[in-house]
Design a protein that fits this description.
Layout: H1 2-27, E1 30-35, E2 46-51, E3 59-63, H2 76-81, H3 90-97, E4 110-113, E5 120-122, E6 127-129, H4 131-135, H5 162-177, E7 183-184
Parallel strand pairs: 3-4, 3-7
Antiparallel strand pairs: 1-2, 2-4, 5-6
């Protein structure tokens, strides 16, 4: 019984870490963009992070993190051993927004952080989750098998897998929301 409580506490801790990271990234000028573009918080969607003034930027840095991580998280181990900012995109975004990645005369670049890790839609929680989160969703009993992934109910149109997600980012975010002459890194 103690093991189940530890797992529940651990899951809650990770949710708190994700909330802190997203809050800090928001303070640095990023906002959540839900894919497909135009989706509301209640719609089935995949969240990504973009600079609030993305359309005005002459240079955009696009980051495609690992496929097994949550949005804005690079390493939970680093977060646990060192600091939240070091194990997440917070330090990177902070340096970019302070001008450390700026080329002369171009100003501060815009940022797009893709989310190839959270491509499953958890209807019961109304949120996108990673495969690891999916495998750890609460079940009726300790011997119950994992939830089945329904290709229609648990996948987001245009973001069904990481390849589709990358294509969606280029076709619908960069091509449609970024200045046509902006340099993409």
């Amino acid at each position: 019984m103690n093991r189940l409580r530890d797992i529940a506490n651990h899951t809650g801790c990770l949710a708190c870490i994700r909330k802190v990271v997203l809050g800090r990234l928001e303070e640095l000028g990023l906002k959540i963009l839900r894919l497909p573009v135009g989706a509301t918080e209640q719609d089935k969607h995949v969240p990504i992070l973009v600079s609030a003034d993305l359309a005005e930027k002459q240079r955009i840095i696009v980051l495609f993190p690992e496929r097994e991580q949550d949005l804005g998280i690079f390493s939970y181990r680093t977060i646990g051993n060192e600091a939240i900012n070091k194990g997440s995109a917070v330090n990177l975004v902070s340096l970019i927004t302070k001008g450390f990645a700026s080329a002369s005369g171009q100003g501060i670049p815009g940022i797009v952080i893709a989310n190839p890790g959270q491509l499953l839609w958890f209807r019961g929680g109304g949120r996108a989750v990673s495969r690891t989160q999916w495998a750890n969703l609460p079940r009726d009993s300790a011997v119950a098998g994992p939830f089945r992934i329904d290709e229609v109910k648990n996948k987001v149109v245009g973001n069904e897998d990481y390849k589709a997600h990358v294509k969606y980012i280029f076709d619908n975010v960069i091509d449609q929301m970024v200045h046509k002459d902006a340099r993409i890194d």
